[in-house]
Write the structure tokens for this entry.
Amino acid sequence: EIVLTQSPGTLSLSPGERATLSCRASQSVSSSYLAWYQQKPGQAPRLLIYGASTRATGIPDRFSGSGSGTDFTLTVSRLEPEDFAVYYCQHYASTPLTFGGGTKVEIK
Amino acid sequence: EVQLVESGGGLVKPGGSLRLSCAVSGFTFSTAWMSWVRPAPGKGLEWVGRIKSRGSGGTIDYVAPVKDRFTISRDDSKTTLYLQMDSLKTEDTAVYYCLWYYYGYFPYWGQGTLVTVSS
């Protein structure tokens, strides 16, 4: 089983700042089969990124994903008020699929 | 428009059973692989399992904590996915999401259905 560790657990930033979220895998994630999701309170998660770096339909270009192997990053170039939420990474390289524990991006 | 509508959640005692349903529309259900996902305390989200399409062999995989207790099935004629949950434990309490396993990631999410296991 691939274990995904997200850091930091909480990120306190102001609107307009850059957010950098990390997702580290316990073993290499083949073919960059990694996705990122955003979840707000009371809502279902929303797909942001798949294939480590491809934005999903309708996702603003301030969201970008990068990385390969065991180290992946989600970057939000300039935080908008609606971006304060919890973010999860997920691999789909093999079963069982697993998710990271999440990073909460909160308003400083 | 893709729609996934879960139902069947509720309050059940430990050791009890519950069956969740997911009505699907907006894509070809019979060729789709489907999954269930739930939040897990301290683990973020937890993938519960996956059922392949009949054309892909219909294989079903589960995450270890639910194996031998949960059963995923599908009725292609009704475009409905099911999750039969037996021997429920308090740690199974969660919102359960039915998802289109789209190459392994999940672009479409329903509202989920809440399962509460408590005495």
About this structure: The mean pLDDT of chain B is 95. The interface with chain A takes residues 35, 42-47, 50, 61, 63-64, 97, 103-107, 109-112 of chain B (CB under 8 Å). Strands of chain B lie at 3-7, 10-12, 18-25, 34-40, 44-51, 60-62, 70-75, 80-85, 94-100, 113-117.
